[in-house]
Amino acid sequence: MNRILNVFSFLVLHISLIGFAQNEKFRGETFLFQDAKTKDAIVIEHDSVYYRNSPLQFQKLKHAEYPEIISRYISFNINGKNYFTHSGCGPVLEWRNDSLVRIDNSFLHQNQFGASTFVYKNEIYYFGGYGLFTFKNILTKYIIKSKEWMSIQTFGSEFPSLRRDANQILSGDDLYIFGGSSENPKDYYFGKIPSDNIVWKLNLKTMTWYKEGVYTTNIKTDEGYFNFQHKNKMYMISRSADNKFYEIDIANNSIKKYSLPSYLNIKSCYFDKNTEELVVLHFLSTVAKSKVIRLKLNPILINPILTEKFISHPFEKWYYTLIILVVLSIIFYLFYKTKNKNTILNNKSIVFDTNTKQLKFKGKNIDAFDINESKIIIHLIQNQGDYIPLNSLNFLLEQEEIIENYSSTTKRRENTLNSVVTKLSLITGCNESEIILYRKNPNDKRLKEIKLKDHFIRVK
Length: 460
Description:
The chain is α+β, with helices and mostly antiparallel strands and about 450 residues long.
């Protein structure tokens, strides 16, 4: 009887263990990453076994002690090595010779769950996250040499709001952050979408934050996405059943929506840059098993369902309107100034009638000049486009019946020219500098030259 009871107890216990194991397997505690050296897809199951590419060849997993389970970790490839950091920040593991080795001197932070993680200059960064009952907007970095984490100070006139599960794009020295979920007083667990919809840029050289604009409201960033980058473009795959697939191109400021060729129940995924394939760990819920599926990226990106502008500026229209108003104001000012200047010139300028050889001012004939003064004025009018030698006026004043030396002629020229300028100034109200221009000859500085100022006398 005791023997039968023992056998029955053994069977019950065995069946319970099998059921427990199946339940654990159904929970899908699996972890997918790409081996940095071999480029194989590796799947770890239940922290005890793993396989490369195919589940037909399981191997026993060797590993050091580490907090929690491997599926709570995030994978990074840096300089040909695989690193895994805990999703809440703290513990760091390395994949060595098909074994997991803990390499940090830290502890289980549990302070940045849902952080935006990225690698910059071969160092691991966490931005934001949730932990200790608070949302974060801190930036932390793992120092490989010291095997410790440290907080990085950032700068800027404004900073992103506290959030977790934010989407990130790393482009050169710039990190772009948008979306995610922030604190919701009515629902602590799920949070809410940040109300500003702002795309933030952090320059990683200066650690300074900038507002880039507002992202399109057609993206529901609270749904949660798997994301990866390829050639400065960021791709987002929805964790929900619809498998929405987005491509964000920061350089061209566009976002495109695509459809995946088939339904995928994605547990985790990564992008294989060598083969340009999306490697997905697809969970088969009916048989409680996982399967590695590879999808070529290029065929997915052939026909976008929707293409939109990614970042817009809410005050963009006002900027354009302001610019247009400024340009119109400048044009109006220049037009008014030119018109006003022409009006002033018309009011102050003298008209020379070539038919009658008569000077007029404001429609009235000017009879204030004698013969010599008129000669000088007409000669200046005929050459008003160019500077002429000042001594060329001497020939206009020479009198055949009177023999005089050069000094006398020059003195008479100066007196006559001064008289011309004085009368023109009295008639028009202009200063001498607004009537006559003088200069030294560019080739011979000893020679002086003269011309009428432009538009002072208009030829009709």
